[in-house]
Specification:
- The protein contains three helices and four strands.
- It is an alpha+beta fold.
- The protein has one domain (3-143).
- It has a two-stranded antiparallel ribbon. A two-stranded antiparallel sheet has the order 3-4.
- The longest helix has 35 residues, at 109-143.
- The radius of gyration is 22 Å and the shape is elongated.
- It starts with a helix and ends with a helix.
């Protein structure tokens, strides 16, 4: 396994976690959105990850010797929540139906905040892994001096 391939694995994780964080922030920003362009309340979104082979130009000789390819992560799909909206009684609201109920997105802000912290920490872990590999490369170059 090449050190450069390891950087590719961590970079794929950083990219996937960045997308996850963007979707979670979008969910949090729309917890009270009752009317969207599609009509109806905002629908919560989730990110689905999938493994994917990654590599670098320097990694192929090592991968053939080790007998396997490295796998990183990629966002395979962004799903929309299918649960019915939460109905709240607010007869003066502009989006209220004939009975006075307003459809709000069914979300749990605390759950989304915990997921956002998890995405942030996963991103930081990948940054730390890249930093460690960079230090190993620098120490290897120092040996040749």
């Amino acid at each position: 396994m090449s050190l450069f391939s390891t950087i590719s694995v961590s970079a794929s994780g950083m990219s996937a976690q960045r997308t996850r964080a963007e979707i979670l922030v979008q969910n949090l920003a729309n917890t009270e959105t009752t009317h969207t362009a599609e009509g109806g309340p905002y629908k919560r979104k989730d990110v689905i990850f999938q493994s994917q082979q990654v590599g670098s130009a320097y990694g192929s000789p090592f991968q053939t010797q080790l007998g396997g390819a490295l796998e990183g992560v990629v966002v395979s799909e962004i799903t929309t929540d299918k649960t019915p909206p939460e109905l709240r009684y607010a007869p003066g609201h502009p989006d209220a139906n004939a009975e006075g109920y307003v459809a709000y997105p069914r979300m749990n802000a605390a759950e989304d905040m915990v997921d956002l912290m998890s995405a942030s920490r996963s991103y930081q872990a990948n940054v730390a892994a890249i930093s460690a590999v960079k230090d190993m490369i620098n120490k290897s170059l120092d040996l040749f001096r």
